[in-house]
Write a structure and sequence with these properties.
binds flavin-adenine dinucleotide, binds NADP nicotinamide-adenine-dinucleotide phosphate, six-stranded parallel beta sheet, single chain, 433 residues
């Protein structure tokens, strides 16, 4: 008998889960990958920076999974809106939730909601062309980026590069125009702990030192590290690079990037919009960050908060408000319900981390679930509700339209279409919800 599994979310976790299910040898399997957007690949499409083309090419691997026999992509279908957990449990032998972490974590300081205080999630969504992204203009001279993780590095790099440097990428045309008109002169990237505690990785950090359009600097006192002996090679590498920037002579480039440490934000300043950020110098006490009572204000027209992502609860699915994940044991949530990816373990880890994570979930699922005959089909249920999913063929038409747009604009391989309407138009689906 065929095992029928619904996977909710078509990011790396969802697709690696589909792959692990199709590659197992226990018996025949059919997998439906449901996705709220008309497009697959989650953060590979709407997170990985447009200039990281080699990382984005992982999509070529992921597409082979969606094209494998027994696997279907059903886009434009949202769990919690178009269908509910009970519907999935009625139609499938098992359900795997892989909906990632879609929203920003908050700083919890005064001024956070002022215009000009922006979550990195929104800014990333914008430059990646996510259909739900707000619009931005870069009519600002000074930007403070809070956080020293890889997302902060991505955001800083996109702000610092020229539009010409990004022309050959798939960055949406309207974003490229906004970047060409950017008035950004000075960018501050702010870490609340030291150089040895920063979360970014060495390869990504080094790229900032290679920016053609921006001088980069650090301050010797802030990047000093007393004892390097117990630190990993990766962290020592970060510290070396950050220290070398403290003595690097400026080249009079149009933009300047300052990487700051031991400063925690205490207030975003401004009356009707952001005018600056107030920071308190910090130190570590018993491994915890504490304030020293010494303050510094950095003028800023825009504050980009890049302090991590957060999962959102799915209606009818258990959720821990403390860990912001779905409680599970090796991927098992409840009878016939499973979880993988960022929703399972929190918003950390690179694309590849989701592969072993998904494999664990699939092992648990296969050990417990037995296929049942004669379940109703999801197709009938969706049709009865007037929901017509975006098929894999429809997605290929969106991709083809993006390739055509790139040729028309004389840009790289693809240029992203922005907005659901443009995507639905690409395959004649304008009448769909
Ligand atoms: C800005 C950014 C840049 C990154 N860059 C890199 C990089 O360069 N290299 C690297 O290795 N890693 C990178 N990562 C990490 C990597 O993207 C993640 O490890 C990975 O995407 C997590 O996979 P996931 O499937 O759990 O979540 P996601 O990739 O977020 O996929 C979740 C999917 O679920 C869908 N969904 C959500 N809710 C519903 C619902 N209710 N119904 C149906 N579908 C739903 C979403 O639309 C999405 O497509 C980056 C992360 C971020 C945030
Ligand atoms: N190229 C790539 O491979 C790539 C690109 C992008 C993302 N990713 C991955 O995606 C994951 C998410 O990245 P991320 O950058 O969003 O998260 P992250 O790596 O967890 O970094 C979050 C940063 O925010 C800081 N922070 C958290 N709360 C704060 C607060 N209240 N005040 C000030 N600073 C605060 C953290 O400092 P503390 O350490 O002090 O908490 C840390 O510097 C990571 O695993 C990352 O490696 C990979």
């Amino acid at each position: 008998m065929t095992l029928r599994v619904a996977i909710v979310g078509s990011g790396p976790a969802g697709i690696y889960t589909a792959e692990a299910l199709t590659k197992q040898s226990a018996g025949p399997v059919e997998v439906d990958v449901l996705e709220r957007l008309p497009t697959p690949y989650g953060l590979v499409r709407y997170g990985v920076a447009p200039d990281h083309t080699s990382i984005k090419s992982i999509a070529h691997y992921l597409r082979r999974v969606l094209e494998a026999p027994g696997v279907r992509f059903l886009g434009g279908v949202e769990l919690g809106a178009d269908l509910h957990v009970e519907d999935l449990l009625a139609c499938y032998d098992a359900v795997v939730y892989c909906t990632g972490a879609m929203v920003d974590r908050q700083l919890g300081i005064p001024g956070e909601d002022l215009p000009g205080s922006v979550a990195a999630t929104d800014f990333v969504n914008w430059y990646c062309g996510h259909p739900d992204a707000p619009d931005f203009t870069l009519d600002v001279a000074e930007v403070a980026v809070v956080g020293v993780g890889n997302v902060a590095v991505d955001v800083v790099r996109i702000l610092a590069k020229t539009a010409d440097e990004l022309r050959a990428t798939d960055i949406p045309e309207q974003v490229l125009t906004a970047l060409a008109e950017s008035r950004v002169k000075r960018i501050h990237m702010i870490g609340r702990r030291g150089a040895a505690h920063a979360k970014f990785t060495l390869k990504e950090l080094r790229e900032l030192g290679e920016l053609l359009n921006a001088d980069i600097l650090t301050f010797p006192d802030e990047v000093a590290v007393e004892d390097l002996t117990d630190l990993s090679r990766q962290i020592r590498g970060n510290v070396d690079v950050l220290q070398s920037w403290s003595t690097r002579p400026p080249q009079d480039r149009p933009r300047r990037l300052e990487v700051r440490f031991w400063l925690r934000p205490v207030e975003i300043l401004g009356v009707s919009r952001v005018e600056g950020i107030r920071l308190e110098r910090t130190r570590l006490e018993d491994g915890r960050v504490v304030g020293t009572g010494e303050f510094e204000t950095i003028p800023a027209d825009m504050v980009l908060r890049s302090v991590g992502y957060r999962s959102v609860p799915l209606p009818g699915v258990p959720f821990s408000e403390r860990s912001m994940t779905v409680p599970n044991e090796a991927g098992r949530v409840r009878d016939r319900e499973y979880v993988a990816g960022w929703l399972k373990r929190g918003p950390t880890g690179v694309i590849g981390t989701n592969k072993s994570d998904a494999a664990e979930t699939v092992r648990t699922l296969l050990a417990e679930v037995t296929p049942q005959p004669s379940r109703p089909t999801l197709d009938d249920l969706l049709a009865a509700r007037g929901v017509r999913p975006v098929t894999y063929q429809d997605w290929l038409a969106i991709e083809a339209a993006e390739e055509k747009l790139a040729r028309t604009l004389d840009r790289g391989e693809k240029v992203k279409l922005v907005g659901r309407a443009a995507m639905l138009d690409a395959f004649g689906g304008a009448d769909r919800r």
